[in-house]
Design a protein that fits this description.
The chain has 347 residues and is mainly alpha-helical. 53% of the residues lie in helices and 8% in strands.
């Protein structure tokens, strides 16, 4: 009778405990979800930056990537940096040149490294990275927390959608306490018949429904979150969602340029100083924006058929160097000024 009393049969007052139990608990804690989400975003960005990095020796690529070996050295350089960025923490790294292994420094090593950096901005023991003022992580965590709420809501509504809802017209008003057990038995029989694919007999105004999850609201929420995260990271929202740009005539060229503009600051501020310091290298950023090269080649072809009376040879060479992102120093251009031809006079 407890079930019948809870739904309103044979009771004249509300039960003492009016709270409802939580259904379909989400097994992942919010703090774990947020940390994994933000760390993964940073790992993807840094990995893509490394794909555009040239000058790194091939044998050092394994140092950057993770390892599946069960040891404290399983995290590669990218994961170590990503976790420190997410946690806004200090990171002390030790690189063993003989074994080519990068690992986190021990407590004693970290103390020595930090003391050395305070004295002379360097250490023979290891390397010191500081992300304490990396406030972008705070904003990403806020929107990642909103994403967690969206996923939890979707998880609950999707699980609830598996259940049938048998809606009997005026149940509490038309069924007495004595008939309530019969109604419950009929409802169970209807549910079993539907589960077996059988026919059921209902009153004309009774309904059987299933919950339809509101995916449109969830999609709009995720799009809003991706747009705000893209603002703080400097990359387009399509980069974060993995969706290709849509629209008639949209080749995606604008998004590719935006991605490169967003990745370049991570190269300049994180990847280049870290790689140059740890591996004693001089890496450079390799562009994948070939649209400018195509335009420069077209201009070069047009200049070949354009007379020097309209655009001088010196100006042509200067324009081409700028379009190909080459040096515009006069020494590199090797421009020689031609003397104007004097008009001949006849006696």
């Amino acid at each position: 009778m407890n079930l019948l009393k809870n739904i309103g049969f044979g009771t004249s007052s509300m039960p003492a405990d009016t709270s409802l139990p939580a259904i379909f608990d989400f097994l992942v804690l919010q703090k774990d979800f947020v940390r994994t989400d933000v760390t993964t975003i940073y790992k993807r960005i840094l990995t893509d930056v490394l794909e555009r990095t040239q000058g790194l020796k091939p044998e050092l690529e394994n140092v950057i990537s993770d390892s599946c070996l069960g040891s404290e050295k399983s995290d590669g350089l990218v994961t170590l940096i990503s976790k420190a960025m997410c946690d806004k923490a200090e990171l002390f790294i030790v690189y063993d040149k003989s074994t080519k292994v990068v690992r986190k420094a021990t407590t004693n090593e970290a103390d020595m490294i930090k003391a050395d950096y305070l004295k002379e901005a360097g250490s023979s023991v290891g390397f010191y990275l500081n992300f304490k003022d990396f406030n972008t992580s705070d904003m990403l965590k806020i929107y990642s927390g909103l994403e967690y709420c969206t996923v939890v809501s979707l998880h609950k509504s999707m699980n609830t959608a598996k259940a049938l809802q048998f809606k009997m017209k005026s149940l509490r008003a038309s069924v007495s306490e004595g008939d309530s057990e019969t109604v419950v038995a009929q409802a169970k029989a209807i549910a079993k018949a539907l589960g077996d694919g059988g026919d059921v007999l209902l009153d004309g105004e009774d309904t059987i429904e299933t919950l339809i999850p509101d995916l449109q609201a969830a999609t709009k929420s995720m799009d809003f979150i991706a747009q705000k995260q893209s603002f703080y990271l400097g990359v387009p929202a399509t980069y974060l969602t993995g969706l290709a740009p849509s629209g008639l005539g949209d080749s995606g060229e604008g998004d590719r340029k935006a991605v490169e503009r967003g990745l370049k600051p991570f190269f300049q501020s994180i990847i280049k100083p870290v790689l140059d310091s740890i591996f004693d290298s001089q890496v450079t950023f390799k562009t994948e924006d070939f649209g400018g090269v195509t335009a420069a080649l077209m201009a070069l072809k047009d200049f070949e058929i354009t007379t020097d009376e309209l655009i001088s040879a010196e100006d042509k060479k200067l324009i081409i160097h700028k379009m190909f992102n080459l040096s515009t120093d006069p020494k590199d251009l090797k421009i020689t000024k031609t003397k104007p031809v004097e008009n001949e006079t006849t006696d």
